[in-house]
Amino acid sequence: MEIKDTYKTIQTKGEEVLFKDRNSKFFGYTFPVSSEEDVKNIIENLKKQHHSARHWCYAWQIGTENIRYRINDDGEPSNSAGQPIYGQIQSFEITNILIVIVRYFGGIKLGVGGLINAYRTTAQMALEASKIIQKTINLDYLISFEYKDMNKVMRIIKENNLNITKQELGLDCKIYISVRKQVSNKIKEVFSPLYQVKIKKLER
Boundaries of each Impact N-terminal domain copy (predicted)? Predict the structure, then answer.
């Protein structure tokens, strides 16, 4: 059975989109995020940018295996904004993303059905205006060894095209590598001939 070890995300902020319905304006934005801190900062900036808007509704999802997400209706009727936005994140199967939709009220109430349609459509438009990319899920390992084994370790790293993320080289050497999940179960195997070399999986 093949392990699924790829996910979809966006690398950069998407283009601004605009959806209008009965004088209400909905501006849609997508942002790549990796923490709730990122989300907070982006929303603060958008509130400054659109200080006279009525609502800043959003949904975000972070993670590849342990998924975290949040939706926010920001004063709109319950589940009429955040949920339809999050529905588009699920529909596009995308993660590490924040979608914010800024609404300027146009004087005419849209009703719950109208709001759901407006927020869903704006979120879809925002995702379609974003460059969606595919990335691999990688696991991190620490290889610890004595300096005398350096050449052997480096040869194995080179032969297996392993990606070094950090090195600490002294009498005792530490090399950190990042390995695609699909091939990670073979990692200990490739180093097994070097019995003095220790390899440990790191938790993120």
Answer: 22-127
Check: CB of residue 130 under 8 Å from CB of residue 10: yes
Q: Could you read off the pLDDT of 63-103 as tens digits, one per residue? A: 987 899 999 999 999 999 999 999 999 999 999 999 999 99
**Three-state SS string across 37-88, please?**
HHHHHHHHHHHHHCCCCCEEEEEEEECCCCCEEEEECCCCCCCCCHHHHHHH
**Cα–Cα distance for residue pair 152/128, rounded to 1 Å:** 48
137-202 belongs to CATH 3.30.70.240: yes
Give pLDDT tens digits for 23-44. Answer: 999 999 999 999 999 999 999 9
- Is a pLDDT exceeding 80 seen at residue 204? no
Phi/psi of residue 146, nearest 5 degrees: -85, 155
Looking at the chain, the domain(s) classified CATH 3.30.70.240 span: 137-202
d(CA 63, CA 82): 19
